[in-house]
Amino acid sequence: MNWLQRASDGTITLTLHAQPGAKRTEFVGLHGEALKIRLAAPPIDGKANAVLTSFLAKYLGVPKAAINILSGESSRHKILWVQGASEAALARLEGEAEA
Questions:
Q1: pLDDT averaged over every residue in the chain
Q2: 33-50 pLDDT, tens per residue?
Q3: What's the total number of domains in the chain?
Q4: What is the C-alpha separation between 99 and 74, in angstroms, rounded?
Q5: Backbone dihedral angles phi then psi of residue 68, each to the nearest 5 degrees
């Protein structure tokens, strides 16, 4: 899966396509080479990025500080770095791409 890259040190890199302004925050499958996620926040003043990191932290069971936006801070196409996600959480995340 190109949207999910695992590193030998236990970190992962996620490629996401964000859709801000949705009614609720949820994964909606693949969008090209990225996992698409709808965000229940407007793309104003970093609100969508805050919702994104909070949602992913809760979903993956990691602290918000374990998630960094590497690129796409002001774009729909985002690349995130995540540290400390369990194998079970990653398996659930991989299942979201198949939905």
A1: 95
A2: 999 999 999 999 999 999
A3: 1
A4: 27
A5: -130, 135
Query: What is the token pair recorded at 36?
Result: 């698409």
Alpha-carbon span 20 to 31, nearest angstrom: 15
Pairing of strands 77-83, 11-20: antiparallel
Residue 4 has pLDDT above 80, yes or no: yes
The pLDDT of residue 25 is above 80 = yes
Print the domain residue range for 47: 4-97
CATH number of the structural domain spanning residue 80: 3.30.1200.10
